[in-house]
């Protein structure tokens, strides 16, 4: 937005012979009414962008007021410069000038072509037209036959006069000639105020089209494809006039009425525009052809300058005041000028592409940024869960491996116990094939990567102690089992919510994260793609979450199962330790038995001196049996203590020893019975020699009973010992 540039120009006084009582004094950009030889009249001082006194030339006015507009027009801005003032105030002189001091139009045309010639990267097409509004009718000054032309408006051309001849010009000279020809067709008339009074408003219009010269760069649409079109209006208005002063009558009177009417319309538009935005609901541009044609220049898309000419004579003070009031209001009017470009199809296409890119950038910088952040967060979540899942899988695998190792250790321990069990079974002779079977069997060899041992009910009383394990316990995951799940906050602290290189972390082939939409999509499609990708990511996240939960559940199950197995292992270890300690204890016990046995044996040896044959037989048999028995026991106990696991290989030997001992015991007892029977027959045939014989017999029976009981006791201990070893 920029204000209309307004200047006031005071023409030289014409009537020098009638000195006035007041005069207009110009100081810098201010004009004030002063009493002759007196102080300024209060409230009659005006300031403008420029104030030119009577000594100023058209050159100065052009340089300060119009030149910038002309140059802006070359760059593509609409421009308007017009002169406003009462009749005979110097409007035509300012716009057209004289041969010695060319006016603004001439200077503008020259400057225009000079400026164009300095621009080498653009091609220009200049068209000029010249029209007048005479009695509210538009006439073509280049073609007198074009009368009463109509004003039209279109999107492409804006407000334009239909049928107006436009001449394409290449030089300033061409324009000058055309202007001269057009001046001939203007309506001038003589009034009391001006011998050559303009009776119409004239508008010299220059249309400047420019196009960048093709530099071969397809991307630079602005320099090669876009066409700038600007309209420059140089307007010389007819002057307001008082009929009483002009003495107009007839045609002049009629002309004066139209002139005043259109100028009033112009004043009204300026007043409305200067009132500000609140009261600019309706600007009556259509009230006159002048305001309609100048519409873009008045509050529209143009750079506008107004030169208000005033007559310094006291007789025209009121008209000058009116002009200055008009100028003051015009100064408050703002325009909004912008470069006017017409685009070819190619330029339009390129521009639309650029606009789409710009929109996409804006979209990505606003709403899309939120979506992208959400997608990024989802991606991070998904990757986090992936990492968590992989960690759980690794933990599960580790757990399986340790489980296998413990299982193997468990089996080894069981094997050792089985071997000890088989030794006892061989020892007491009551073992059966069923009792040799392991109480544990593998029952989970289907559908699992590793074998989980389970228990079945055992037939013996010892196994029955563990009958509470015959059914698998409920392995529902406990809350503590989830303690290994990655902590989300920790993860975010580590990653700060972002992963710099997402692609490098896409380790799971199944997780195909869709990339951002391709570049040639529109913003709507872009949004849809973002939402679609968002949904996909959410679905993938749900799948990963479910998978993670399943793995967590399995891990919890394995952990609980392992805890149970650890408990079992602990118990078994204790029992195995007990089993390992048992041979040592039994060894000690057998040693004490051996001492007792040797003591009994020595007592029996003392009995043999009495010549009792049964005692001798008993002593001999018992001594041999005792040596064999203790030798066998000591050998096996020593092997058990040394950790020999191949006891089962000696079962047949033990069996043979047992059988030999049994036979020898049976033979000894049979010998003793026969010896006792013979002794009894001798007693019946012969009376006893002395009372000491009966004592020896009583002693021999006593020794026999002790030895038999002693042997039975040893065998009983052996059975007990090996049964204990089994468990
Ligand atoms: N600045 C000036 N220096 C010298 N002479 C001037 C100046 N301004 C105006 N004049 C002379 O004053 C007379 C009236 O000027 P001009 O015709 O330009 O007035 P105007 O405002 O166009 O009048 P109208 O509205 O009736 O056409 C002319 O003879 C012109 O030469």
Automatic annotation (TrEMBL):
Domain of life the protein comes from: Eukaryota
Binding site for ATP: 85-92
Keywords: ATP-binding, Coiled coil, Membrane, Microtubule, Motor protein, Nucleotide-binding, Transmembrane, Transmembrane helix
Keyword ATP-binding in annotation: yes
Cross-referenced InterPro entries: Kinesin-like_fam, Kinesin_motor_CS, Kinesin_motor_dom, Kinesin_motor_dom_sf, P-loop_NTPase
Protein's UniProt keywords contain Membrane: yes
Residues in coiled coil: 349-407, 527-575
A UniProt-annotated Pfam family: Kinesin
TM segment ranges: 702-726
Domain Kinesin motor: 3-333
PANTHER family for this protein: CENTROMERE PROTEIN E, KINESIN HEAVY CHAIN ISOFORM X1
Family per record: Belongs to the TRAFAC class myosin-kinesin ATPase superfamily. Kinesin family.
Protein's UniProt name: Kinesin-like protein
Record organism: Hibiscus sabdariffa
């Amino acid at each position: 937005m920029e204000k209309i540039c307004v200047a006031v120009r005071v023409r030289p006084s014409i009537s020098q012979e009638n000195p006035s009582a007041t005069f207009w004094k110009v100081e810098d950009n201010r004009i004030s009414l002063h009493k002759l030889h007196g102080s300024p009249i209060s409230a009659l001082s005006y300031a403008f962008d420029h104030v030119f006194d009577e000594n100023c030339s058209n050159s100065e006015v052009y340089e300060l007021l119009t030149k910038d507009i002309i140059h802006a027009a070359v760059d593509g801005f609409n421009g308007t410069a017009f002169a406003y003032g009462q009749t005979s105030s110097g409007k035509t002189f300012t716009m057209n000038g004289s041969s010695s001091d060319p006016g603004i139009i001439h200077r503008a045309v020259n400057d225009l072509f000079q400026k164009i010639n300095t621009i080498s990267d653009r091609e220009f097409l200049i068209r000029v037209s010249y029209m007048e509004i005479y009695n509210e009718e538009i006439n073509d000054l280049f073609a007198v036959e074009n009368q009463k032309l109509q004003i039209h408006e279109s999107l492409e051309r804006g407000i334009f006069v239909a049928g107006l001849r436009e001449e394409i010009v290449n030089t300033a000279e061409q324009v000058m000639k055309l202007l001269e020809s057009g001046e001939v067709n203007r309506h001038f008339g003589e009034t009391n105020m001006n011998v050559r009074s303009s009776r119409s408003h004239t508008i010299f219009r220059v249309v400047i089209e420019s196009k960048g010269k093709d530099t071969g760069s397809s991307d630079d649409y602005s320099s090669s494809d876009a066409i700038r079109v600007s309209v420059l209006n140089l307007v010389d208005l007819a002057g307001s006039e008082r009929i009483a002063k002009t003495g107009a009558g007839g045609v002049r009177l009629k002309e004066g009425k139209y002139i005043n009417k259109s100028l009033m319309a112009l004043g009204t538009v300026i007043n409305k525009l200067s009132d500000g935005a609140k009261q600019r609901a309706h600007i009556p541009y259509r009230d006159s052809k002048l305001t309609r044609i100048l519409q873009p220049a008045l509050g529209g898309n143009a750079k506008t300058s107004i030169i208000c000419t005033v007559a310094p004579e006291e007789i025209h003070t009121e008209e000058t005041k009116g002009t200055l009031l008009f100028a003051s209001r015009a100064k408050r009017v703002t325009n909004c000028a912008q470069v006017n470009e017409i685009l070819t199809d190619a330029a339009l296409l390129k521009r639309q592409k650029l606009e789409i890119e710009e929109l996409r950038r804006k979209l990505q910088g606003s709403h899309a940024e939120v979506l992208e952040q959400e997608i990024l967060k989802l991606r991070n979540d998904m990757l986090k869960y992936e990492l968590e899942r992989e960690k759980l899988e690794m933990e599960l695998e580790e757990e399986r491996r340790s489980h296998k190792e413990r299982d193997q250790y468990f089996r080894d321990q069981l094997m050792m116990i089985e071997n000890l069990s088989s030794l006892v079974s061989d020892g007491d002779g009551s073992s059966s094939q069923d009792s040799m079977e392991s109480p544990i069997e593998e029952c989970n060899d289907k559908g699992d990567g590793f074998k989980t041992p389970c228990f079945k009910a055992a037939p013996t009383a010892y196994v029955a102690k563990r009958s509470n394990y015959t059914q698998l316990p409920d392995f529902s995951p406990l809350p503590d089992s989830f303690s290994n799940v990655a902590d989300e906050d920790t993860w975010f602290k580590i990653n700060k919510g972002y992963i710099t290189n997402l692609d490098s972390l896409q380790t799971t082939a199944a997780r195909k994260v869709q990339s951002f939409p391709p570049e040639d999509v529109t913003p709507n499609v872009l949004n849809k793609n973002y939402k679609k990708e968002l949904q996909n990511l959410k679905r993938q996240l749900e799948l990963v979450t479910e998978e993670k939960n399943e793995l967590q559940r399995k891990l919890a199950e394995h952990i609980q199962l392992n805890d149970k197995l650890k408990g079992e292992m602990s118990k078994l270890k204790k029992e195995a330790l007990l089993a390992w300690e048992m041979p040592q204890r039994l060894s000690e016990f057998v040693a004490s038995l051996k001492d007792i046995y040797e003591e009994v044996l020595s007592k029996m040896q003392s009995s043999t001196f009495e010549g009792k044959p049964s005692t001798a037989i008993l002593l001999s048999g018992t001594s041999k049996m005792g040596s064999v028995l203790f030798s066998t026991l000591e050998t096996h106990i020593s092997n058990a203590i040394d950790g020999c696991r191949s006891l089962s290989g000696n079962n047949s030997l033990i069996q043979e020893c047992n059988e030999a001992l049994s036979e020898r015991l049976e033979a000894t007892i049979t010998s003793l019975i026969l010896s006792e029977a013979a002794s009894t027959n001798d007693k019946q045939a012969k009376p006893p020699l002395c009372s000491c014989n009966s004592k020896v017999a009583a002693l021999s029976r006593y020794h026999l009973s002790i030895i038999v009981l002693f042997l039975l006791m040893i065998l009983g201990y052996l059975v007990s010992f090996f049964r204990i070893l089994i468990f």
